[in-house]
Amino acid sequence: MQATARASALAFILAALSLLAYAEPGAAPAPAAASAKRDPISVRLPSAAFAALETINPEHIRWHVRLLSHDLLEGRGTGQRGGDIAAEYMATQFAEYGLKPAGDNGSYLQKVPLVGITTLPETHFVLLPKQGAPMDLKPLDEYVAYDQTQQSQSDIDADIVYVGYGIEAPEYNWDDYKGVDVRGKVLLMLVNEPPSDDPKFFKGKALTYYGRWTYKYEEAARKGAVGVILIHREDMASYPWEVVRNSNSGEKSYLKLEGPALKVASWVQLEVAKKLVAGSGMDLDKMMADARSHDFHPVGLGAKLRAHMASKVRNFESNNVLAMLPGSNRNLKDEAVMFTAHYDHLGIRPDMPGDNIYNGAADNATGCGILLELARAFSVAKDRPGRSVIFAAVTAEEQGLLGSEYLGKHPPIPAGKIALDLNYDDVQPIGAPEEVEVTGAERTTFYPWVQATAKEFRLAIRPDARPEAGHFYRSDHFSLARVGIPSFSINEGMKFKGHDEAWGLAQNKEYTEKHYHQPSDEYHPEMDFVGDAAMARFGFALGWEAASFSKLIGWQKGDEFEAARVKSQ
Fold first, then answer.
1. Three-class SS of residue 169?
2. How confident is the model at residue 235 (pLDDT cuts 50, 70, 90)?
3. Which sequence spans correspond to the domains of the chain?
């Protein structure tokens, strides 16, 4: 299609959907309304809020998803034309709803400075065991690596030190470093964290941030290491090597460098690590078992990493899209409740034959459709809650939560004044849910209201089926939690009206295996957005309630984010 024709088609779709946003909605089921009583627990919305909630319509969400996942938006790649069009579309909708811009310089856009890093074929990654031949590793098959210093070239010739899980957690009386100076070293470490069934020790089976690879890179850089080699083992990582491979091929984006960084941030296959360790006369299985003890000390392998990192460096900008509905209470309007969803996806892969557009219909055009419908519903309410409400469509989630990380560091109002963040990510359009997942909500002082609201909506709260996978740390709400804002995502569970749980689990399995991060995640007219609308109504009720509390929400005492909350206030 010629550029002029493509532009005309896109303009037509944008105009049509803007007009459709004002169509009369159908009636939607919702919890019964009553008084506006607040604190103690009450989920009874005032009449104006209930009337606005009733306007939430699954067809509105459908229209947004249809456009945002259209081929014309080219997969909404970060820093690519389709991603920029998606941001402008979100901003235009916010403007039509009468929301105030909350971005840079009186606009709806908050510029996010990014750097794209592509590891080039000239890169060499050689492990030198204490004994035996050098191990010249094959990229993607045996290792993946990026240079986080954002330089075009870096050279490493450094000793390798095994540091177990690479965790320093004073609150759990755990220190894998034991004061050892690791400056200038390459650190070999395990993914995940020490196994436990004790909820007071690394939260038992639930993965904490200490178990995430991002923390391990950050901590090593803070301690002056030049590199990290993570050992991949599928049961510990909770995903196969193919996920590591696919997530670390091609360009990877980072925020502009603001602190120390690693010259080598890498993963290796388990068998590679075993061979390296064996060259030092050691047994990796025993070393992994030893790492589970409080008494573990770092172990020098007498081995080296000799690497030449060659990178293509691309500086660019993407945008978060921010809008605000001012609050009605003069004592509370400087505070806010926030709703978030990421609008980016994986863009186009030019080297792929056939359909190479990653449309991202479920992930995360659905979350954006819900965010826009929430913004519209709040805007039509005849009254407003006491606090302001911020709507944030963030970029670069697929690149490592970068847009939300930037938002957390540069919020439109101080983080200490944001009562709550409610996030939406990948809400499957497959029917009416009978469950809701709100993993992380139980960590906040708001949880009793979440429970009461779920009961009012006749939704059972589904516990996290795989707490060891650490899903709480893998979506944009986590970036806001890191700066102290009570945050969690809202999503459907696995039980849907007219189906048993096995059906929901099967749907989830099929999507994960056949469509997640694949070009086949596309819009289809038969999609049923009733569930997306139900999740929007549930979030609307929670958001209105949180925006009307007399006091700000906090984290439960002892939670890992409590200190950040206290610091922000």
1. strand
2. confident
3. 60-98+326-568, 117-313
